[in-house]
Design goal:
326 residues, alpha/beta, Rossmann fold, 2 domains, 11 helices, globular
């Protein structure tokens, strides 16, 4: 089946729904059904990209769509995915998979039983800079990986001026920045044997949920530390891999460019590479991977089993601390 022949139900037409709809259109999707609790949002996307709208999610599942994009609040992902698979749909869900591991195993079992593809949107696995970093690490240039360090922070009011009305502020907070934990675990190549974390609301920005998260993880052959926050200015995103023979540091705070610096003990010098990116590149790439997986041409880059690894950590840490606003 050609990509243009797929029929997609887009569930959730807010900011991330708009981005995915644009990227789906870019890769050739032309048959859409849109749903959002706010019908005006659905009508806006239908007017922009063509397609129809439905008043309820369940109504959308009754249409002749073959795939569902879940771009709804985190807590809805697993129940909505289960319902979609039960209706014979393939599912792409935004990250995180959920706010709890509950139901993930059942979703994975059901998808396998029904022969449906489920992919989780950890789009930074498709980022050109991340791919180049991982290629460097796997080449052996810096030796065996000993430690992975990730930092991500941004001033959420700058990103979403309406942030106080978002569910992020109510229950998930900086744990929504789980991309960077996923990347650290992806590079480590294993589930952690042990992890510890603290979280809290310290910025005074009105978060009821944590605006700061600090994580330390121990893997069989390396360790990792991850910092996430929703108050930092300017926006910062770095991913460092320390090896027995050097290190590689990726700086990618901007959506438009990145810098990869590599130091090898043999050369005794730093090597610097830069690259240009477009934010939607990785969204288009993950969707292309999703449809290729449906058609049996590729494996899903981030299946349920991968997404659950970071979810177990965030759930464990979030439920082991009591954020207090300061």
């Amino acid at each position: 089946m050609a990509v243009k022949d797929h029929r997609v139900l887009v569930a959730g037409c807010g900011s991330i729904g708009k981005r995915h709809a644009a990227c789906l259109y870019d890769i050739g999707i032309r048959q859409f059904v849109f749903f959002d609790p706010d019908p005006e949002r659905s009508r806006e996307l239908a007017a922009t990209y063509g397609g129809t709208t439905v008043a309820e999610y369940e109504e959308g599942l009754e249409t002749d769509t073959d795939s569902v994009y879940l771009l709804s609040p985190t807590r809805l992902h697993i129940p909505q995915a289960v319902a979609a698979v039960e209706h014979g749909k393939h599912v792409f869900t935004e990250k995180p998979l959920s706010d709890s591991p509950d139901g993930a195993a059942e979703l994975e079992r059901l998808a396998a039983e029904r022969g449906r593809t489920v992919a989780v949107g950890f789009c930074f696995r498709f980022h050109d800079g991340v791919r180049r970093l991982i290629k460097t690490v796997r080449s052996g240039e810096i030796g065996r990986t000993v430690s992975v360090r990730a930092m991500m922070g941004e001033h959420f009011p700058d990103v979403r001026p309406d942030y106080l009305s978002t569910y992020y502020v109510k229950y998930s907070g900086a744990f929504e920045l789980v991309h960077d934990l996923d990347l650290a675990m992806y590079i480590a190549g294993a589930e952690p044997e042990e992890y510890h974390g603290i979280c809290g609301s310290y910025s005074g920005l009105g978060f009821e949920s944590p605006d700061t998260v600090e994580l330390i993880l121990r893997f069989p052959e390396c360790s990792a530390s991850v910092h996430l926050d929703f108050f930092q200015s300017p926006r910062t995103r770095t991913l460092s891999v320390l090896g027995t023979e050097g290190q590689a540091v990726l700086e990618f705070p901007s959506w438009d460019e990145y810098t990869l610096r590599t130091y090898g003990r043999k050369s005794g010098e730093w090597k610097t590479e830069t690259g240009k990116t477009e934010r939607n590149d990785m969204f288009r790439a993950e969707s292309e991977n999703f449809f290729a997986a449906i058609e049996g041409r590729e494996a899903v880059m981030c299946p349920i089993s991968e997404a659950v690894k970071s979810l177990k950590v965030t759930y464990g840490v979030q439920n082991g601390c009591s954020p207090t606003a300061h």
